[in-house]
């Protein structure tokens, strides 16, 4: 059994390996929701390279490192928009082939999901990512705030507004089926 | 660190998660290889994660960003050198496009659809290789670009584009050489066509690999618009392709740095009309 002195290169590497193995899957999924699935691994690789270089800034606890990594990923993706055209939110995809898969389904949940898929397309990118952080990334308000760079309280307010917006769109009598993500995987869902 | 909320909407949304539920073995193998490549770098020396030999370059981003009034989401990335270095990948790039026709146009369109996987998925309602649905097809040196419109299986009008290296066109399955593609709801759906003498910018994007970038823009052209010339923030003068009421242009942009004026500034456009009138100094036409 070997040990490494805290702060040594070996200890740093061991710690990084542990974070990587504990968070890679979640980070890959985070990226898959926001870029075309074939590019998600590239985003994940970029984020972990940043984490390796900024290891001293990364929170020590895995549960704290995860939202920090999500925040790096978000900044990395947003950073591809420059100057006056820069945006401050990333749109989030919804499941591939949703409409096609559910079109023939008759159960109530399937119908509701179809309605939600339609409503999702009508949310702003800000609303989409606020909801995604809670529902798909599974973060609490503090963690989501780390990703978005806001307080937990501010995040809760945003989440409340986004959910109201989703419900309003989902129950709108003018709702029409959303395009499936399979046909919009590389464009904003608007 | 999870939320305790579990209302019906949340439960229904969980079933709509677009991400993979499980990471498959191939993904796991690549993840392990990526980890080892990262650990092999000096954390104090900014270096890039190299693509392992024999593995296709997949370095292509397409960011999903909030739509703006004029600007839509577009980002992609390739192995791109700096323009100042005139690196290998863009060495043949030309500011003047050459229109693609005949067999070459068909080959480029086929390669684009293959890269996007749309033919296999049966996603499109009709074959965009039909001449009428290809809006722009051009080459700039060794890089080919197409823009097409098609009705998707969902019934929505879609717009797709590809920017591809010569290697990709020759062998679309290989993934070697770099390419960029998109397929999304038409950005200008519901918007009226521009006036006869107006060129509108519908889409503008930056693609990046490592620290290198390129920029591209697409838009709608009024019936009297016959030419568009772009002066980039860095001073490049680039001729756009204009066809079928659409226009498109792209150029190498150099370093992916906030200090790079190509990325922080805005281009200007010179629009030439059918009667010879030239409207210059247009910013962000729309």
What topology emerges from the helices and strands here?
The complex is a heterodimer of chains A (190) and B (286).
Chain A: H1 9-32, H2 40-53, H3 62-78, H4 98-102, H5 108-120, H6 125-135, H7 141-148, H8 152-170
Helix pairs in contact in A: 1-2, 1-3, 2-3, 3-7, 5-8, 6-8, 7-8
Chain B: H1 8-14, H2 25-39, E1 98-99, H3 102-116, H4 118-121, E2 134-140, E3 143-151, E4 157-165, H5 166-170, E5 179-185, E6 199-209, E7 212-221, E8 225-231, E9 237-239, E10 241-243, E11 246-255, H6 261-264, E12 268-273, E13 278-283
Antiparallel strand pairs in B: 1-2, 2-3, 3-4, 4-5, 6-7, 7-11, 8-9, 8-12, 10-11, 12-13
Properties at a glance:
heterodimer; A: 190 residues; mainly alpha; Rna Polymerase Sigma Factor, Chain: A; Arc Repressor Mutant, subunit A; 2 domains; 8 helices; elongated; disordered C terminus; B: 286 residues; alpha+beta; five-stranded antiparallel sheet; four-stranded antiparallel sheet; 6 helices; 31% strand; RNA_pol_sigma_r3/r4-like (chain A); RNA polymerase ECF-type sigma factor (chain A); RNA_pol_sigma-70_dom (chain A); sigma factor activity (chain A)
What does this structure look like?
The complex is a heterodimer of chains A (190) and B (286). Chain A has eight helices and no strands. By secondary structure, chain A is an all-alpha fold. In chain A, α1 packs across α3. Chain B is an alpha+beta fold and 286 residues long. Chain B contains six helices and 13 strands. Chain B has a five-stranded antiparallel sheet. Chains A and B meet through α1, α2, α3, α4 and α5 of A and α1, α2, β5 and β6 of B. Chain A: Residues 171-190 have a biased composition (Low complexity). Chain A: GO terms for molecular function: DNA binding; sigma factor activity.
């Amino acid at each position: 059994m070997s040990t490494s002195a805290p702060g040594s290169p070996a200890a740093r590497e061991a710690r990084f390996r542990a974070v990587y193995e504990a968070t890679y899957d979640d980070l890959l999924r985070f990226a898959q929701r926001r870029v075309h699935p074939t590019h998600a691994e590239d985003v994940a690789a970029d984020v972990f390279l940043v984490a390796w270089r900024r290891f001293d800034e990364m929170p020590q606890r895995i549960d704290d490192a995860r939202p920090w990594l999500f925040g790096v990923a978000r900044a990395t993706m947003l950073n591809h928009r420059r100057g006056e055209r820069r945006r401050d939110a990333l749109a989030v995809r919804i499941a591939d082939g949703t409409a096609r898969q559910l079109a023939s389904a008759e159960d109530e949940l399937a119908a509701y999901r179809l309605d939600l898929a339609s409503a999702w397309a009508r949310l702003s990118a800000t609303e989409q990512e606020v909801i995604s952080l809670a529902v798909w990334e599974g973060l609490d308000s503090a963690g989501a705030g780390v990703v978005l760079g806001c307080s937990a309280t501010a995040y809760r307010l945003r989440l409340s507004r986004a959910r109201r917006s989703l419900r309003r769109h989902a129950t709108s009598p003018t709702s029409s089926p959303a395009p499936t993500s399979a046909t919009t995987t590389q464009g904003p869902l608007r | 660190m999870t939320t305790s909320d579990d209302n019906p909407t949340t439960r229904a949304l969980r079933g709509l998660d677009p991400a993979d539920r499980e990471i498959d073995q191939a993904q796991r193998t690549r993840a392990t290889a990526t980890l080892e490549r990262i650990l092999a770098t000096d954390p104090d020396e900014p270096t890039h994660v190299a693509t392992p030999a024999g593995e296709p370059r997949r370095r292509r981003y397409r960011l999903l960003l909030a739509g703006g009034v004029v600007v839509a989401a577009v980002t992609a990335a390739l192995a791109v050198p700096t323009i100042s270095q005139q690196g290998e990948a863009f060495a043949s790039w030309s500011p003047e496009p050459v229109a693609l026709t005949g067999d070459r146009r068909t080959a480029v369109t086929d390669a684009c659809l293959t890269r996007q996987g749309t033919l296999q998925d049966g996603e499109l309602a009709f074959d965009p290789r039909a001449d009428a649905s290809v809006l722009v097809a051009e080459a700039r040196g060794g890089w080919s670009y197409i823009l097409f419109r098609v009705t998707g299986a969902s019934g929505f009008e879609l717009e797709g584009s590809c920017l591809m290296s010569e290697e990709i066109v020759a062998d679309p399955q290989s993934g070697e050489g770099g390419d960029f593609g998109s397929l999304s709801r038409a950005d200008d759906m519901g918007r009226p066509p521009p006036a006869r003498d107006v060129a509108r910018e519908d889409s503008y994007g930056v693609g990046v690999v490592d620290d290198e970038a390129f920029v591209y823009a697409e838009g709608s052209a009024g019936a009297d618009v016959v030419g568009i010339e772009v002066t980039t923030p860095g001073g490049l003068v680039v001729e756009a392709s204009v066809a079928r009421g659409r226009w498109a242009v792209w150029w190498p942009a150099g370093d992916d740095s906030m200090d790079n004026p190509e990325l922080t500034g805005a281009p200007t456009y010179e629009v030439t009309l059918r009667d010879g009138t030239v409207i210059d100094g247009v910013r962000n036409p729309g």
